[in-house]
UniProtKB/TrEMBL annotation:
Protein name stated in the entry: SusD/RagB family nutrient-binding outer membrane lipoprotein
Top-level division of the source organism's lineage: Bacteria
SUPFAM superfamilies xref list: TPR-like (SSF48452)
PROSITE patterns according to UniProt: PROKAR_LIPOPROTEIN
The keyword Nucleotide-binding is assigned to this record: no
Species name: Aequorivita echinoideorum
Coiled-coil zones: none
């Protein structure tokens, strides 16, 4: 895979932290090139940047889940993945900038022999493995079949694509092993080398189990038995229990290490986005107290832009200033998401402690607390929000999908892949059809054009195996999908 990507992006590779590595066998006790710890830090940043960015060339999921709407362009809101090579850029970011550096980091750390740090090596390798699983799970959830067993083989320029379900099952096993291998009594990376958890092995263990919880629920409709055992194993080992467990990247107040959203909304000097009418209208209907901390107002009102058309920037609400701060953390996973996942697991009858209603309420509560919003008690008492009351009026089957799915979408505001995954799994909330959609609702990224051009045989086999390289092709776990508008 890496050779293939190198062919495609020669100029960009020159800036990758791992591209100038010399022969590691020259001196394994004192590598003369970039250290494994530096490569790990680079991989963290590249992956988080790609997950949180608002750049229309990189990540349009805030548009697709209809948190935002465009003011300058309209293609991306209408599900155009081709005009800007969005799948190609995501593929490159995850494989070349993320997985490549993680692979090299593990290689160097494994080879390095240093009496002062050898006892930290197992934890470092386990943490690298957890981030590797995160990156691969994202690729499978985004594309379907992807290169995996041959992906990081330096001698294979044309890697085959592995079956998505097979990859996902193996990733769960790898994640379980990595979590089990972590020793919280020992250290790992320093605070400068790990800008997510500062090398805290216990925190990484909770993150691994929380990711395992999510991955288990991805399988709920396609493999209920494995789903339940995976979820219950994750919970018994220990998932997030408060906001202090959140997996977020700590950005710097100075460029180039600021949050990418700050770059896109402030440093760019552009005015490309307004809040989407879908989320504004829903929160207005609920008189949701989080509106002042989610959005700006227009003369005291919250107004969203029309989906799929150009919208005059000054006439609509925008993201709250907090989101555009340079140091706003880049979130990989948080306690809000975990509580909604636990609510879903309980609703499915899994043994996770507590019931669906209690975890649902905890998810909403965690959202209010994270955003420092007032009015929680009154909000929870609304018939449209109270879990049991909302179930009674739900039009979905099962009813909990609509109830949990809608509030999870509101609670995951400003998230990208997590929100998109939630909507695709639960089929809620009901979104608005764009004015001029290029496709039906995209339940996957189409494969990169570069793969079609340079790896055509393996691309064609993968495309055929998943049922066609279309935005609407349901992935293996997406059993009950219906278009959300």
């Amino acid at each position: 895979m890496k050779k293939l990507i190198i062919i495609l992006t020669t100029a960009l590779i020159a800036v990758s932290c791992s591209d100038n590595l010399e022969d590691l066998n020259q001196n394994i006790k004192d590598p003369s090139t970039v250290g494994g710890e530096s490569l790990f830090a680079s991989a963290e940043k590249q992956i988080v940047d790609q997950i949180v960015t608002l750049n229309v060339n990189q990540n349009n999921l805030r548009l697709w889940v209809q948190y935002l709407q465009e003011a300058t362009y309209e293609d991306e809101s209408n599900y155009d993945q081709i005009t800007r090579p969005i799948p190609d850029n995501h593929w490159t970011a995850m494989y070349r900038d993320g997985l490549k550096d993680l692979d090299e980091a593990a290689r160097i750390i494994e080879l390095t022999d240093n009496d002062l740090t050898n006892d930290l090596k197992p934890n470092k390798l386990a943490i690298i493995e957890i981030m590797t699983v995160y990156a691969y799970s994202n690729l499978v959830e985004t594309f379907g079949n992807v290169p995996y067993s041959e992906a990081l083989d330096r001698d294979n320029a044309l890697p085959a694509y592995d079956d998505a379900e097979t990859i996902y099952t193996d990733l769960i096993s790898r994640l379980t092993a990595a979590s089990n291998n972590l020793n919280p009594s020992l250290g790992s990376f320093s605070a400068n080398e790990d800008l997510i958890y500062g090398g805290d092995a216990a925190a990484w263990k909770k993150f691994a189990n929380s990711l395992k919880l999510r991955m288990g629920l991805v399988l709920a409709d396609s493999n209920p038995s494995l789903s339940q055992s995976t979820v219950e194993s994750a919970v018994s080992t220990g998932v997030f229990t408060s906001a202090s467990d959140n997996a977020f990247y700590s950005y710097s107040p100075t460029d180039p290490n600021t949050n990418p959203v700050y770059v896109d909304l402030v440093l760019s000097g552009r005015f490309d986005f307004v809040i989407a009418e879908t989320i504004v209208d829903r929160m207005n209907d609920l008189e949701d107290p989080r509106r002042p901390v989610y959005f700006t107002d227009v003369d005291g009102e919250y107004i969203g832009g029309t989906i799929g058309t150009l919208n005059t920037y000054a006439l609509f609400s925008h993201v709250a200033p907090r989101i555009a701060e340079p140091t706003y953390p880049g979130i990989l996973m948080d306690y809000i998401e975990v509580e909604f996942l636990l609510s879903e697991a309980a609703a499915r009858g899994y043994s996770v402690g507590g019931d669906a209603a209690s975890h649902y309420t905890a998810g909403i509560t965690a959202s209010f607390e994270y955003w420092n919003a007032d009015g929680l008690a009154d909000y929870l008492a609304k018939p449209e929000v109270d879990y049991n009351s909302a179930l009674a009026t739900s039009t979905s089957s099962p009813a909990w999908k609509q109830v949990i799915g809608t509030q999870a979408w509101l609670g995951l505001y400003n998230r990208t892949f997590a929100s998109w995954l939630s909507i695709r799994r639960l089929d809620y909330p009901i979104l608005k059809e764009p004015a001029m959609p290029e496709t039906g609702y995209p339940v996957r990224y189409t494969y990169p054009v570069s793969e079609q051009t340079l790896n055509p045989g393996n691309y064609s086999a993968a495309s055929s195996d998943i049922g066609g390289d279309a935005a609407e092709t349901q992935l293996f776990w997406d059993v009950f999908y219906t278009f959300p508008f």
